[in-house]
Amino acid sequence: MAWLVSHGNVIASAEVAGSRRERGKGLLGKDSFEGAFVIPQCKWVHTVRMRFPIDVAYVDEQNVVVKTERLNRHRVGAPVRHATWVVEAEAGAFARWGLRVGDPIELRL
User: Which domain holds residue 99?
Assistant: First the structure.
């Protein structure tokens, strides 16, 4: 189990995609998801065949959120040039967590 931390506060528990298979599957097949799903070394995501919309945060190498977006089901996001990792969560999670562009974020294992 890992944790997402921003401004010194834990904002969510996190599951990290540690293998190619986990990266490929992501949140596919789930009806809902509590917490965050983190994909290292990632610049874009999609929601093709997903069962629910998601919030996506693109994070740069300085661990700063450079873009957030909500992706509805069956969509393909555009690559984000400076992103080095991605955080996915159920739609509405970022508003509850207070996560915005410009926020520092780190993954603690």
Answer: 2-108
Model confidence at 24, pLDDT cuts 50, 70, 90, reads confident
The angle subtended at Cα 40 by Cα 35 and Cα 44, nearest 5°, is: 90
76-85: average pLDDT:
97
Residue type, 97: W
Handedness of CA 23, 19, 80, 13 (dihedral sign): positive
Cα–Cα distance for residue pair 54/69, rounded to 1 Å:
8
Which CATH number does the domain housing residue 56 bear? 2.60.120.1140
Our count of domains for the chain comes to 1
User: ∠ CA(91), CA(70), CA(39), 5° rounding?
Assistant: 85
The token pair at 95 is 């508003």
What's the N-to-C CA distance of the chain in angstroms? 7
